[in-house]
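Hi P.,

Sorry for the delay on this. The queue was packed all week, but I finally got your sequence through. Input first:
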Amino acid sequence: MKEVKIYSKNADFQKILGNETMGLNKAFKEFCDILCSIPMAEDSYASSFNVSCAASILMYEVTRQRTKIDL
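Then the structure:
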């Protein structure tokens, strides 16, 4: 799995989240330019994140990358 980079601090993009079990349906996947997933611990009891948790992780990562200071 490769890391998804947010290339521009000002670029708009659409975030589409799938459900916890089935993910996105094929029509939505075909519409997307990039698909990504959030890795989970291999020994986790859960097989996926709750969609609200996944949204929080995604928005955190977008904010982290967009506010990163290059030293």
